[in-house]
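$ ./design --mode recover --in tokens.txt
reading tokens...
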């Protein structure tokens, strides 16, 4: 399930560390990643590879969608002294946007989230800070929770009066859908290019 399976699961099973150790790593990693995202627009080397700080977009799948969602609702002015609309758009695929279900699942035995952590890391609870259009997607062959979270997140963004597009990939599972980002003709690839205005909508 998003952040939990991908990050905590890999830290505990692949590298053989305990759940508490993994949580400690993530407690440091998430602020680090947010700090790196915050510094990205001011990197001196950005123009050297054609980067444009005024056209910064984020995308992510599964736990990456959770992290990209966190970037979308970051208070860029308060936390980094950057414009509120530093990120111009986001594409979130098959992510977790409210961490309450993680705490209600069996994962709560090794993912110890406090109320404060759950609130802070639940993108859906901070839509007042969302300052860009969002594309959210899921496949019809994904588990019900990924589908529900995606639908409810899209509905919440829409209810908040923010621009959102919900894409449903017929016949795609959790792993296949992200492959469509690699093609300009794929569901996600086309959506990303359209969001960045690199192809006609």
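writing sequence...
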């Amino acid at each position: 399930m998003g952040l939990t399976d991908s990050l905590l699961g890999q830290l505990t099973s692949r590298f053989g560390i305990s759940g508490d150790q993994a949580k400690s790593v993530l407690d440091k990693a998430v602020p680090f990643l947010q700090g790196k995202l915050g510094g990205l627009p001011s990197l001196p080397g950005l123009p050297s590879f054609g980067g444009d700080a005024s056209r910064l977009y984020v995308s992510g799948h599964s736990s990456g969608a959770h992290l990209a969602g966190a970037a979308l609702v970051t208070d860029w002015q308060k936390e980094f002294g950057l414009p509120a609309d530093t990120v111009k758009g986001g594409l979130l695929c098959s992510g977790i946007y409210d961490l309450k279900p993680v705490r209600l699942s069996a994962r709560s035995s090794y993912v110890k989230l406090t109320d404060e952590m759950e609130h802070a890391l639940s993108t859906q609870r901070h839509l007042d800070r969302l300052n860009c259009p969002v594309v959210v997607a899921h496949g019809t062959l994904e588990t019900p929770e990924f589908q529900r979270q995606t639908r409810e997140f899209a509905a919440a963004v829409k209810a908040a009066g923010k621009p959102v597009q919900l894409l449903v990939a017929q016949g795609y599972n959790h792993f296949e859908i992200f492959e469509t980002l690699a093609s300009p003709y794929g569901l996600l690839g086309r959506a990303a290019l359209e969001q960045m205005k690199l192809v006609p909508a």
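exit 0
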